[in-house]
Amino acid sequence: MLSRRFPKEFVERYSQFIPDFDAFLNAMQRPLRRTFRVNTHKATREQVLELMADLHPEPLPWFELGFSLSDNGNSPGEGTRPRSDATNASRMCPQREDARYSPHFPSLGKRIEHFVGLIYVQEAASMAPPLVLRPQPGERVLDIAAAPGSKTTEMSAMMQNTGLIVSNDPSPTRVRGLIGNVDRAGCLNVVVCRMDGASLGRAIAGTCDRVLVDAPCSSEGTIRKSAQALDHWSVPAIERFPSIQKRLILAGYHALKPGGVMVYSTCTVAPEENESVVMYLLTRHPEAEVCEAELPGLVMRPGLREWGRELFSEAVGRCRRILPQDNDTEPFFIAKIRKGDSSPELSPFRREGEQSEGEEEAGRKTRRG
Amino acid sequence: MNRRVREFCERFGIPAEVFERLATLEEQETVFVGTPEAMSFDAVRPMRRGIRLARVYPYSVKPTTFGMQVLGAQASRNRIDLSDEQAKLLINGGSLNVDTGVANGFVLLRWRGFVVGVGFYKRPVLKSQIPRFRAVE
């Protein structure tokens, strides 16, 4: 009953390894809570809470600057539309199920607080990767796939508008949105680039204290935002992403200084886009260290140790999965990786993502069969 | 820093110390402001360094909405405080008739203590200089 909205293949794939699978499907069918983050470049937490008291924001347990709107932001006495009605409506008019079209959607983006940049509308789980990365004031940070800029602006605030964030996205249209959000958030420590991520990683190799690779992905997590995301779901669609994800994770790693820290994240549950990509990096760079990534108050589950015919190392088990039923968020995957001090320098004559025969062989040895 | 940008900062009473840990850069009739690290980044050619502080015209300089939202927070002069309705009207591109003691010229528009953007005041008309990015309700 629960699974009828999900393709059979989706259920077969993910019931294999997602714990509490019925709860997972249940959570994936619920619309997302509306959440936002206080932008400390422009206001304090207390100032924003006072301005937005009409929406009764509730703090997220793992982030003091993150808030969700109780009862979907309805004013007292205004009921939430029952889910069954929403589902029926969506069948007649699919876009109606998109939470952004809900008649009860609190239009955060149309509030003055948003225009002035006091708040940033951001999904709760999406606030986690910068918190795990923990950029410090004065550091140099690379956000290699940054648009629309939620994590760039979050990191800028964490760095108290000091140091440098190189915020990149190759898409001309998406980079315009990125610039708009950087402007609105008042980020003085950001440069915006529009480059292929791999080329940028080469250009600034060995110079970054921290790197965020929030990789483009099949975005299964966005099913909670829009039912249409499920209409486009297929295994071939997933298989389009690992090649670019592997290029980006390598590029990010090369951009790090020795001892620097990288977070690799996606908003998908597909192991090909998550653990397999981290395993690929570990195969290419055995000196890379996967670190524990804990956030008090946020329930995270360990990374997989195997998928299909692929076996992952013990280190990959230290990656973290955020599941929707645990924290009422989108699903997310987070890996925190420290660059080893003995990491070889990237040769300027070799392109990232290119494998030598020996490395190809090493990659094959991690697979079963 | 561009002399005329310094002049409008003085008009708004923005203390010079605000710029002590920042750098500015003038490029294509636009003044950008950011951290020294951002302004001097040259490993690749970025699309944007920092944020836009002002547009430079042949005979004038116009401070930007987002530049003033950040740096105008510490301004002490030529500010006009707006009610909720006035703020919405000006953000959506309107104008107001107000009688205030501020001098004619660019003014900072404030809502509940936060700088919303820039207006142009010619007594008694206050015209919004805020680009219409999106409607505020």
Quick structural gist:
The complex is a heterodimer of chains A (369) and B (137). Chain A is α/β, with parallel strands linked by helices.
Distance between the termini of chain A: 36 Å
The residue-averaged pLDDT of chain B reads 92
Number of helical runs of chain B? 4
On the 0-100 scale, what is the average pLDDT of chain A? 86
H/E element order of chain B: HEEHEEEHEHEEEE
- Alpha-beta classification of chain B: alpha+beta
Helix proportion of chain B: 10-25%
Count of distinct structural domains of chain B: 2
Task: Give a count of the beta strands of chain A, DSSP E runs of length 2 or more.
Answer: 15
- Which parts of chain A are unreliable, with pLDDT below 50 for 5 consecutive residues or more? 72-103, 347-352, 354-369
What share of residues are in beta strands of chain A? 15-25%
Shape of chain A: globular
Cα radius of gyration of chain A in angstroms: 20 Å
Please tally the β strands of chain B and state the result: 10
What is the N-to-C succession of helices and strands of chain A? HHEHEEHHEHEHEHEHEHHHEHEEEEEHEH
Discrete helix count of chain A: 15
Q: What integer value in Å does the Rg of chain B equal?
A: 15 Å
Name the largest protein-protein interface in this structure. A-B, 39 and 35 residues
Reported for the largest beta sheet of chain A, the result is: 9 strands, mixed
Poorly predicted segments of chain B: none
Structure commentary:
The complex is a heterodimer of chains A (369) and B (137). Chain A is α/β, with parallel strands linked by helices. Helix content of chain A is 33%, strand content 18%. Chain A is built from 15 helices and 15 strands. In chain A, strands 5, 6, 7, 8, 9, 10, 11, 14 and 15 form a nine-stranded mixed beta sheet that branches. In chain A, helix 9 packs parallel to helix 12 (242-255) and helix 12 packs across helix 13 (275-284). Chain B has 137 residues and is of the alpha+beta class. Chain B has two domains: 1-76, no CATH class; 78-137, Archaeosine Trna-guanine Transglycosylase, Chain: A, domain 4 (Roll), CATH 2.30.130.60. Helix content of chain B is 20%, strand content 35%. In chain B, strands 6-8-9-10-7 form a five-stranded mixed beta sheet. In chain B, strands 1-2-4-5 form a four-stranded antiparallel beta sheet. In chain B, strand 4 (51-56) and strand 5 form a beta hairpin. The longest helix of chain B has 9 residues, at 3-11. Chain B is globular. The N and C termini of chain B lie far apart (37 Å). The mean pLDDT of chain B is 92. The chains are: A alpha/beta (369), B alpha+beta (137). Chain A binds chain B through residues 41-43, 51, 107, 109-112, 115-118, 140, 161-164, 166, 175, 179-180, 182-184, 186-195, 200, 203-204, 207, and chain B through 21-22, 33-35, 37-38, 41, 43-44, 46-52, 66, 69-70, 73, 84, 87-88, 91, 111-112, 114-116, 133-137. Strand 7 (190-193) of chain A pairs antiparallel with strand 3 (48-49) of chain B.
